[in-house]
Design brief:
Layout lengths: L1 E3 L6 E4 L3 E12 L6 H11 L3 E10 L4 E9 L2 H12 L5 E7 H6 L15 H7 L4 H10 L4 H4 L5 E6 L11 H20 L2 E6 L5 H11 L5 E4 L6 H12 L4 E3 H21 L8 E4 L3 H13 L4 E5 L2 E2 L9 H9 L9 H5 L4 E4 L19 E4 L9 H4 L5 E4 L14 H11 L6 H14 L17 H15 L2
Length: 474
């Protein structure tokens, strides 16, 4: 769905159909009507949908049975597509199936044995009495658990459901499909076994203690979708108490991929990290981590904003993470809101919310600006309009070029830490991961629409894992 300015004709908003709202319509059509299929697909297209598949199910004496699959841009739009097809003369919509819900039926994960149990001898080794020998050995040398148990290739994905995607505080049960999906990505991209652990508490002390109790099973902890500022304390306390890596992906995964993308974007516009200024909206978990990693990588000044505007010296914060931003960013002590922050800056990174500013305001920035609008599903600005004013535009969406996707980081980061038997993840390991992601895009491939590799590029996990493992050993 596209909305344009009546006077200028410029695009001011656009919502695209996606597979996330894909529906399959079982349709009955008259067999003698040779134009029915054309009218059905035209009706869907006119209503703003995208037909992705059309299948003839069967032909009966008095009707054709068709399955038409189409992408919508939200639930209401899917209903609109159904109504549009139902309005086609002679056509009946028998039923509508939501393909996303069908995809989740029964969950997305299962447990499979790595060994076969085909006879009594194998059973005796896998379980009693043979397993007792292994248990006694681990009682004497617990460090061997990484070799003799699943621990060496296992990660816990821990959430309290307090900050899930763009859905907010929806609780542990509603968070489970997201954590299942994260576990599926771990397995698909890095062959890491990951378990969703959705805790029915949002008490910091209880979360920390529970993860500590669970930690003997796992070689790493991936904290996920825990609201700020509690996420900072939880991560810090677990990093101090555990002897395995603790990684809050909403913070550090985002920061790693942003750094990787900016590394290549600066190459496109021929600017250097130390020379550029960065305006950043969002001072939550992701924003603070991005700022810290950009500083560690050698970027110039950063001006950060929260809901109250630019974080400047005249404001006071009880939150230690915002205190850090106040102490380490905004060297010129700018005051004001987003427009004042954009003035003369080379880079904008948004990790906040939708429609923060009119994309035409990018004209306030320095020449050849780089703008990242990472709020999902709707960025801080209209990316289509932004491309008129900035040579490099990135979002968190898969339907625009230059998607900033954490899947580029966390599988390889954990693969590397597990292989290195690392006990923590350092800033140097994160910078190394970002550099590895950026290096996957070869110089001859680099352009304004390709600054970051595809998540399906097999070189990503391999190179990130190698870089992280190498950095862990130094």
């Amino acid at each position: 769905m596209i909305e344009t300015d009546l006077f200028s004709g410029n695009v001011i908003s656009m919502t695209l159909a996606s597979a996330g709202y894909s529906v399959t319509l079982r349709i009955y059509a008259p067999p003698e009507d040779q134009h029915a299929i054309g009218r059905i697909t035209t009706a869907i297209g006119t209503a703003g949908g995208v037909v992705t598949a059309l299948d003839f199910v069967e032909s009966e004496t008095n009707r054709l049975v068709l399955d038409v699959t189409a992408n919508a841009h939200d639930d209401t739009h899917a209903d609109d597509l159904t109504e549009a097809v139902a309005a086609v003369e002679g056509v009946t919509v028998h039923k509508v199936s939501d393909r996303t819900f069908l995809f989740h039926l029964g969950g997305k994960l299962e447990v499979q044995n790595r060994i076969r149990l085909r006879n009594r001898d194998q059973l005796s080794m896998a379980y009693t009495p043979g397993v007792a020998r292994v248990s006694r050995a681990l009682a004497e040398r617990p460090e061997d658990a990484r070799n003799l148990t699943i621990k060496g290739n296992s990660v816990a994905i821990v959430t309290d459901g307090s900050a899930v995607l763009g859905l907010g505080n929806i609780g542990p049960v509603a968070a489970l499909p997201v954590m299942e999906g994260k576990a599926a990505l771990f397995k698909r991209f890095a062959n890491v076994n990951a378990w969703p652990i959705c805790l029915d508490t949002q008490d910091t002390d209880e979360i920390v203690r529970t993860v500590e109790h669970l930690s003997p099973v796992f070689g790493g902890i991936n904290l996920e979708d825990i609201a700020a500022p509690r996420c900072f304390e939880i991560e810090a306390r677990l990093r101090a108490s555990l002897d395995i890596p603790v990684f809050h992906d909403d913070q550090h995964g985002t920061a790693i991929v942003v750094l990787a993308a900016l590394t290549n974007a600066l190459r496109v516009v021929h600017k250097k990290m130390g020379d550029v200024g960065v305006a950043m909206s969002g001072a939550g978990a992701a924003g603070v981590a991005v700022a810290k990693l950009l500083k560690a990588a050698g970027f110039g000044d950063i001006v950060a904003l929260d809901r109250g505007g630019i974080i400047s010296s005249d404001r006071s914060f009880a939150d230690s993470s915002k205190q850090w931003l106040q102490e380490h960013t905004n060297r010129q002590d700018r005051r004001g809101g987003i427009l004042e922050a954009l003035e003369g800056m080379d880079v904008f990174v948004g990790v906040s919310g939708p429609d923060l500013f009119d994309a035409r305001e990018i004209r306030r920035m320095a020449s050849d600006p780089i703008v990242f609008g990472l709020a999902n599903p709707d960025p801080e600005f209209n990316p289509q309009v932004a491309r008129e004013y900035a040579p490099v535009v990135a979002t968190g969406r898969s339907d625009f070029p230059n998607q900033i996707n954490n899947v580029l980081a966390f599988p390889g980061v954990f693969r590397g830490t597990l292989d290195a038997r690392a006990t923590k993840i350092t800033e140097a390991m994160k910078v190394a991961a970002a550099g590895a992601i950026a290096s996957v895009v070869r110089p001859e491939q680099l352009n304004t629409s390709y600054i970051i590799p595809s998540v399906f590029n097999p070189a990503v996990v391999e190179q990130v894992a190698e870089a992280v493992e190498s950095a862990a050993s130094t």
